[in-house]
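Re: Re: token formats

Sure, here are both.
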Amino acid sequence: MAELYNIISCLGARSMCFYGNEKSKELLFIYNSFLDAFGINTERSRRKGYGRAVNVAERILDALDNRVDSKIAVSLSDNPETLVDFKQHTKIHENDFVGKKLQLAVQKSNKGILLGIDVGGTDIKLAVSVDGKLKVLKEHDWFPATFTRIHELIDPILALTDLLRYRTDSRFDMITEKVMQPAVSTEAIMECTKQAKEYAKANKITVPFYDAIGLSFPDVVVKDSIVGGEVFKTRGIRENPSINYEEEFRLITHLNKELRQFVIQDGVIGIVNDGPMAAFTAAAETAYEDIDSVNKGVLAYTLGTELGTGYLDAQGKIPNIPLEVYNFIIDLGSWPEKIFPSDDVRSINNFNTKLAGTLQKYTSQSGAFRLAVKYFSKENPALYNGLFEKNFLAEHHSAAGDSEGLYLVVKPKDMRKPFLEYLMSLAAQGSETNAQRIFSEIGEYLAVAFAETKRILEPTADTAILFGRLVKQKKCFELLQSGSKDLVGENAFMPANEEMALTPLMKQLKDNKYYTVAQFAQAIGAIHYASYRTNTLA
């Protein structure tokens, strides 16, 4: 069941066939067990565990076929002709076509007003370029998993998009400066934008529209529509008993249409999952200097709130598949950690599906927190007690204050980012071996993720590029690499750091004294993606 779950989480499905002797009791047992465990004949809202991967696959079909309530066809057969050779999709075509398209997109980014948005689990990062100059960088803190209605996800994105149109003009600096810090409310941003609009009207200032918008979103995206709906970021909405989740979630599938109000006529809105955006970002940077570097496509992972995975194939296309590698089950043991509820920092149970042993709790910041508690409590009690003194952890209550256990502190201040920064600094100092052990072990898990991705997806790319907060520190990346090399070798991973800053916009980010390439790389990549989509359409 875990094997089938990993395959569906990666590739999705339009139909599935169990091939063999139809009279075999073993085959019938597996077939019927699959139907039951994955809830194939059950409504989406009632599916649990493994069935959540089926929900995502069916919503992808809804988007591809422009319909509602698609179903995966599952059957038995003793006819080998029903089998499909997926390897035909992974053939390498040695040419520089993709590299040329990427170079053109980067070159075209030096004209017009382009917005790149990188939506994450702890913050939203936005970058605006005006005629090739990096004009605005904005970070906005949020905690979407606590939202209960979809407009709480949509409103901040729209408000920030509108605000930054004014921020490109220095005449609005005094008005907009007060909301440029990360910790501001959506209401404050809206009020500030309202004041800016009134100022523009009074002074007859024409506020520009964007020529194109590129957006990286942490959920499955098909045809610029967000279609997954089973991620941690939408958990609070999904568990809201007062709404119909399917109807509520469909509202965010129209985010691309909502953003259209901020672009010029015929302007492009390009939305992709954060994993593919990472792959595209890496491809655009490397192709800018070496046109042949992307002949085999690009595979990338983002290591932050969760593990994101992206693949740009050898034809420069992003496949319409879930690629939810963070849901891969890699651990069928670890019984002691299964007893804790998923929100407990010690738990290996998935936030969304409650299934144990998925990469979500091994390769993301949740993995770092879990291992810190595991090793500090046993090996360094003083350091462990310090996690409570620094207000990173709290006992006997969850974020909602209603469950006993060991939980991250997220209110009144979200301490997830400071907690991770603390662990990374301990590892970088070199004196705390247990902190170093955390990142080395995450490297082991990442190697398993890479091996499992290659086995199921069969990507043509030979290496994976790592993005995100967990590789921001050079020492932390080195520890990840040391932990992974026994399984996948020393050259399996490359960090998306300052050395990858090759395009003009990324070089400007590299020279910024307040922000790093690791922080805003995907926002810059989203700008290039917007240009790429414009050129592709042209």
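Second one below.
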Amino acid sequence: MLLAITPPNATPKVVQHYNALLGAGLSMLLLRLPDATQEQYEDCIRAIEPRHRSKVILADYVHLVPVAGLGGIHLKASRQKEWKHWQEVAQAQRIMVSAHSLDELESLPFCPDLALLSPVFDSISKGGYHANIDLDECRSRLPKLPFPVLALGGITPDNYPLIRSYGFAGGATLGYLAEQEDAMEEAFLRFARPEVLTIAGHDPSSGAGLTADVRTIERLGAYPLSVTTCLTVQDECEFVSCQSVDFIPALRQLLKHHKPHAAKIGLVASLQDVYTIADMLQEAGVRQIVWDPILQPSYGRDPLHADWTPDLLHKIFSYCSLITPNLPEAELLFGTDWEHKLQQVADTFHVAILLKGGHSANRDSSCDVLYQPHREAQSSRVPRTPYDKHGTGCALSAAIATALAQGETLSEACRKGQWYVDALRRSGKTRLASLPLSGERLKAEKLRRGKLQFITDSPDLEEILNQCRAALQGGVRWIQLRMKAASTEERVVAARAIRQEMQPYPSAILIIDDDVEAALRSDADGVHVGLDDLPPADVRRILGVDKIVGATCNRIEDLALRSLQGVDYVGIGPFRTTQTKKLLSPLLGEKGMAALVRFNHTLPQPIPLIAIGGITADDLPTLAGVGVQGIALSGIINHATDPQAESARLVQLSDQYF
């Protein structure tokens, strides 16, 4: 994994350059600005695209981490003894520290998620700061530490491949990239990508197994290595048989010259082979080993491994970082899928278990549960999708291994793997999945359709459907379901009914107002939150980064906060008095909206602004002149004599002005 550190005097303009690197595969960015004010830190955070913020580590003002949805904190030596306090302040999943000797690392008062050790080579950014780390000592002592360590100091594309041989999990670079600000992306691409190894069977359909793993690893930004364990006779509809392949010579040769950052073990001819593979990987220094225990093919008739001893299983458990069984596999491996039993196995053998939720009876969502040693179990959900896919278990474990190789925490890697598989399931109606389009690209396409947003205004389901039907028939393609006094269950029912109305209109978008749970269960395109609702960072953790998160603003201070939170669009208003909201913020009018637009243009990442509140058709030229990107309205359609015709007229006008 590769971490970049911002120059100490970085401005928002400089920080913006790192967006391209994060998009190209940079594992993490340490935002470190010595002597900077909180306002300067906030401006630099705003310069980072929201989709990349989970990869950002913050060095100061760590209370901004949960606000902006950042990935973790860097603790100075003076803060390390109070690490629990700082973790609570930041609500951080990842804590990183720095050290200047192996002794410092070995005497830390807690186990961090990541550490930097410097100077490994002569520093580029600090003149006269020379290498002072015994690399031979690193080779023997670093593998014994329970956390990964990155080499810092003079890291370049030429010496970066060497540091893995000394026991480092990767490197951190400051000077090499900072000195090439105008060509930073080109400089970054000279670094080798993290290597991820898949050891699995060959599926002729390429829907599962080795070839599917390679596609996943490559697409997610790592370099794929592969070793074949068996040849199968199967396609996406039926598994017939498998023939074992002598994989040991190929694996031994590969590990001579490659040290993968992570490895995934898939289909094997016997569980003894799993043990042999895991033993070879651990001997080679591979720290992250993910085992996908394929005990029963999805479309096969017979179990693959009928007999094994508890002793053999226990040895396998002790080698693995993560095991990813579904419910039937958990019952075969552990005798039960009871929560306490899985947690007991995790604690005893120091192995994490991700219990996949695809076989659960819940019709709304699929829930994966992660059991980690001596930690509280974590659950994460995605909506149920109508199409089944061949090889989703393979894709999940390969995606998790890739995320781990790129420096993600285990819980974040499992969540990202779940989102990736969800995208695969949505890629088409056949059992063979296509590589999904970029979620960020799809979201950008949806946001472009948001220049005319229709908001429902009724507690009655039948009236809501009549409103939506008229709007859709008139050409409106963005509907926000607003049912202020309703329960989550009532909103879910309404959202599903609106989805039915939307079926003839594939480009239609559904946003749920103020109810994240309803948005998840109804598989809506996103959610709109007010200032007093769930923070956007928490919304993204629940719904995923590919869902739309909209928000409301009335003041410049609100817009500054929304920019820091990284929302996808902002509804600004009210423009004038409206009858559809009981608690009305101060009216903005043309002058107030113009002030918000001007401030928005000063932000490193301007946000699409949507005017709302008492808007009529005659206001569109004025609002377009002010500089907003669209309008949201309700009453003008709902109270029209012919709502469909009024919708068509507004669609035409919005196309003309926005």
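The first strand starts at residue 2 and ends at 5. The chain is about 40% helix and 20% strand.
- S.
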